[in-house]
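thread: overnight batch results

M.L. [08:02]
morning all. the overnight job finished for the chain we discussed friday. pasting input first so we're all looking at the same thing
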Amino acid sequence: MFDIAQAAIGMDGSAPCEIIPKGYNGQPYMTFKYQTGVVMTEQPYLDDNPSAQGIKFIGTKGWIEVARGYIACSDSSLIPAEIAGRRPQPRTERPAGQQGQQGQRTDAQARQQTAQQGGQPATQVRPAPTQAGLQFEISSPHMQNFIDCVRSRKKPIASIEVGCSTAIMCCLGNIAHELKRPVKWNPATLTFVDDPEAEEHRLMNYEYRRPYHL
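M.L. [08:03]
and the structure it wrote out:
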């Protein structure tokens, strides 16, 4: 979910400038700090469902939490019923037959939908909700979107720059975790700030197969 979080705070293609690992000086969660002043923590976003995958944004005027097929905020009147979705349930509370990943179709449902469409696999496209004139971004599933863009030469909904910055963020978190201390990062130069030990970390260097190099 780091990619979605970075997109929401306007940091697509960038990265945090300081990463503090969980446990350092009593730090309860892995923490990422941005040059904009935004602070992101890796922690459960639902108090009653710590294993749920999602994001919660907390601001000066309230909060909003999102997951696949679910959105809620501190003022429920701001969320149209047609896009609110269903709050993620703990595994033990899900109905029988829905203990897998929430929102995932069963094989039987997939076969039934395929049969109804004349034997052709279904390509699901999310609806395009609007609110106060705003058009939200929609796309086909990522893999299909990538293939479509190979054919059309258009930029995919999740570009390589977004994927790269997300991977960098994850690597920075792992480096800070393994070093057991904070690290500072310069997103513009893609280098650590005055930190030779971090620069020499195994995740910063990779021996490519000859004759390739980076």
